[in-house]
Sequence to fold (193 residues):
Amino acid sequence: MTRPSRTEYDAVVAAALAAIEATRNRPRIRADRSPQGTVAATQAKLAKGEELTEADVAALAAALARMAAAKARGRGRPSGTREDAPLRAVWAAMIAAHGTGLSTYRNGASWHRLTQCDAISKAMVAAGFRTFATYDAVAREMRKFKRSARQISETCAKVTAAWREMEPELRKMESTVRGLVESFAALGPFLKF
Fold:
């Protein structure tokens, strides 16, 4: 792997900073839209091949952060006990930095400090956040993010497989109901209620 140029790195920092600012200015998720609904809507957009806007990325980051915060919070603690703005910001930055060509983590091949985690931590510091300001903190959260994304894609694959398995039966039921409706419609003149 070749070492990325400084301009590529600075472009990722700028994209992450823009995503962080968009997330910071984004209102909380509406009460009528669950985080799971937001994730599903985003997946539907991606399945159709539509591009995600900055607002979509910010909403997705907020939803994923809210789901992660709820999981970390556990039972019995009120929902407002953890500040989720830094978590929303770092997840938005991760989504913005995805697919940029920079390696995600430092390793033997990328000993330099031009990785996605370094760029995100630099953007978090520039945005004024004290949490997720180091490479290690962002790398830990990146691992959680990837784990969550993998679980979501596995769940979607299972649901899709189950739907495909049930689809022939649903088609049979649909044709049966349609036949019953046609039969009752034909008997309509003879039936008196």
Observations:
- The two ends are 79 Å apart (CA to CA).
- The chain has one domain: 6-152.
- Residues 6-152 form one domain.
- Residues 135-187 form the longest helix (53 residues).
